[in-house]
Amino acid sequence: GGWIPGYPLFRWDVRKAGRYLRGERSTPRHEVICREVSDLTPHIEAALKAPRIGLDIEEARCLAFSYDHTFGVGVPEFRREPWRAATQHLLEGAHFITMNGDYDTHRLREWGFHFPHWSGDIMLKWHAREPLIAGKKESGGGQRTEKSLRFLISLLTMNQFHKVYDFQSADDEVVLCCRDAANTL
Fold it and tell me: Exposure pattern of 132-150 as b/e (b: 16+ CB <10 Å)?
């Protein structure tokens, strides 16, 4: 864990408690893992009509996107044909946001993907909005605050914790990537 300043975090916790008392609960979510390009095509068409999509990658192993916060669409083979062409079509046409997007977009560029409509990185926006909570180091190089997507999800949504990296199968990693994309959105 990291250093969490009391008062700014308390304000966010009170807001979350208020939302809970007004009846807000976690959103049921599901994940779609595309095993055939034909399974992916309708999701790309829907994503291209959305005002923006959430996007996440887990290194070179999978890419996921979400155009509806209730689910994420996972593409395990996104760097290989014919998946690559479908992924490129999505990235060229969709307006997408990321979490830790400098990393994700750097890697996508390394792999030869082009994307003209990247709308931003919510982690950087979070740092700008709440600098006391996001990334402040104490003098002497001590502790720093939590800045992960896991932390933002716990603070800003009612969604359950899902960041477990003890994968029992390759699908488990795709499911995590799908959930990250939906939560980013």
Answer: ebbbbeeeeeeeebbbebb
pLDDT digits (tens, 9 = 90+) for 6-34: 777 788 888 889 988 999 888 878 999 99
Q: Beta-carbon neighbour count of residue 116 at 10 Å?
A: 8
Q: Please, are residues 89 and 44 in contact by the beta-carbon 8 Å criterion? A: yes
In the block, tokens 């155009």 appear at 67
The whole-chain average pLDDT of the chain stands at 86
User: Which residues does 23 contact at the CB level (< 8 Å), separation at least 6?
Assistant: none
Strands 53-58 and 96-98: what pairing? Answer: parallel
Tokens representing 118 are 């990247």
